[in-house]
Amino acid sequence: MRALLYATLIALICSLAGTPLAVRFFTRRGWGQEIREDGPKTHLVKRGTPTMGGAVIVLATLVAYFVTKLVTAKAPTSSALLVLFLMTGLGAVGFVDDFIKIYRRRSLGLRAKAKLVGQSAVTLVFAVLVLHFPNSAGLTPASEHVSFLRDIGWLSLGPALFVVWSYVMVAGWSNAVNLTDGQDGLATGASVMAFAAYLVIGLWQYGQNCAASPGKGCYEVRDPLDLTIVAASVMGACFGFLWWNAAPAKIIMGDTGSLALGGVFAGLAICTRTELLALIIGGLFLMELLSVVIQVGSFKLRRGKRVFKMAPIHHTFELMDWPEINITIRFWIIGGLCFALGLGVFYGGFKASG
After folding, report:
1. I need a surface site. Which of 75, 208, 289, 311 has the fewest CB within 10 A?
2. Phi and psi angles of residue 112, each rounded to the nearest 5 degrees, phi first
3. Does a cis peptide bond (omega within 30 degrees of 0) precede residue 312?
4. Apex CA 312: angle with CA 246 and CA 47, to 5°?
5. pLDDT score of 3
6. What DSSP state is assigned to residue 312?
7. Three-state SS for 40?
8. What is the pLDDT of residue 352?
9. What percentage of residues in the chain have a pLDDT greater than 90?
């Protein structure tokens, strides 16, 4: 499993060394973060912090993956390339969004329709292609079935509904990570744990793959080891970035990073056939997303009444005068519990099926 070590270390080094270069580059050009006026007043001191740091995460991941393939003399697989395409495409949409915020000096970037078109185009290409490229066993990178620990045999969507389902997943996880990225290091640290979970899952699926170890509890996943290399690359990149993104942050990942990380998380869930399990692994991201959904729903249905002081929910604790670092660490603990529970459910499912 040297490839996993190579991918993790290369991504870590690229991100750790590349982030301060990005900080200096963005600072010289005045590419700093704009802050919401209606947000916590403690965030006003962050105005001007270099943003678009997610570009470092994306580049470090790509470098780590392709250098690992070169060093190990192994060809890239369709599954990994499609997941990386999804990450890079959504990262590009986020980069445009971040750049418009900087250029126009406002906290809102792309208009909602333009952002939706960009996200939809990338997701559509991914969802169509991921059902192609069968291997010698006839397995494609994804299947038309909804999955939990593996494909749910009776729950087949068909090609059209699969595209819709993929869009819901990609849009949902991208927005969830984006909403979580509201405090220094919060989304980055949570992402390290989420992708560490997929490293373990992919490695286990590789060892229990139906092609190599046929049996009742085996996994029909097209390229489990290569998907594990992708997860290791993203995890290493997030680790290196966290060194500079932890409070007080020297740089912010912006939509460039949050959309990319949400996209690659959704892509890994789809290609490892663990779409519903991702709801447990990414429980922290889901909690942040649901807090916004509940807040907006309550405001519209209950004539302006709110459930939380402010959404996403981490802002509520800020308005309760919790120190930002305390909120971040406690939310990381929640992310760690989701990591452990997700892996526990995954392993329990394997034992039960075996």
Report:
1. 75
2. -55, -40
3. yes
4. 50
5. 95
6. S
7. coil
8. 87
9. 77
